[in-house]
Amino acid sequence: MGNSIAEVSALKKSFGDIDAVNGLSFAIQQGETLGLLGPNGAGKTTVISLLVGLLKPDTGSVSIGNSSCAEAGDPTLTATRRLLGVAPQALSIYETMSAQENLEFFGRLYGLSGKKLRDRVNWCLDFAQLQDRAKSYAGTFSGGMKRRLNIAVALIHEPAILLLDEPTVGVDPQSRNHIFESIEALRERGMTILYTTHYMEEAERLCDRVAIVDHGKLLALSSVNDLIDQFGGASMVTGDLAELPKEIELPGELTGKSIRFASNTPLQDVAALSAQGVAFQTLNIARPNLENVFLTLTGRSLRDG
Q: In which domain, by residue range, is 144 found?
């Protein structure tokens, strides 16, 4: 990762009595995938709208590249928007146009023409694995195919930053996995990505750093491993013993020959028990995850949102 390519500082946006974004500050580093993880209603989509200039912040600032775009009327906003590729949660494709026509249309909006436009359209069709459906109306596509086209449209002009807002909502498992693989391929190419989601497993798999947000506030920001180390709590060790040991005090709970205990150093604790003659028939170590982190930070489950 290199220098910061986009920053939001003390960003606030309210709708009536609701603080959608409440003092949010973070930076996106060149070449990283930064996840915004939080429940529905956490303010993630509002952040995307503020970044692209669709909304004006009440207070605070947004800067992308070397330009500040806090004011919706800022003359630099159009140039700044060209740095961004946006795949919104609400699909931004025309269902009465074919996949190819959608890509050509949006490409022309960004000033592409001739061979450059044809090359980009072909690349995007390949990327989305829609070559065989290039001439089909987007309205005939499955939910997953529409999502893939939505992302391809965002990439048509080779943006510096790709903004993905809940890109797997409503897709089947096969398409979801394809989207994951596509994002991983973009990461390998050095694409800078902001990825919003309320699925912790997506953030764990795809993101270099994760910003945990709730009620418009930033609760924590770091790598997945660092967040788990700081806020995840202990690992849970469970297993079945070959036999009940004598004269050894076992940790945690014992039900019949099944043992269960929490540990911050599970491998060392299991090794110590084995050295004392405790034989495990089965053994499972459940490491804490981002769900545990969110629970620690908010007092509730991520999925409760």
A: 4-230
pLDDT, one tens digit per residue, over 174-214 is 889 999 999 999 999 999 999 999 999 999 999 999 999 99
Q: Which of 127, 134, 145, 172 is nearest to 91 (CA)?
A: 145
Give φ, ψ of 243 to 5 degrees.
Answer: -160, 160
Return the closest-CA partner of residue 270 out of 283, 288, 287.
283
Q: Inter-axis angle of helices 173-188 and 143-155, to 10 degrees?
A: 20
Q: Contact, 155 vs 164, CB < 8 A?
A: no
Rounded (5°) CA angle 150-153-157: 155
Note the pLDDT tens digit of each residue in 33-46.
999 999 888 999 99
Query: Which of 230, 246, 266 is where one domain is finished?
Result: 230
Same domain, 267 and 122: no
Structural domain total, the chain = 2
Q: Does pTM top 0.90 for this prediction?
A: no
Q: Please tell me whether residue 125 adopts helix, strand or coil conformation.
A: helix
User: For 109-142, what is each residue's pLDDT tens digit?
Assistant: 999 999 999 999 999 999 999 999 999 999 999 9
Residue 73, token pair as written in the block: 């009327």
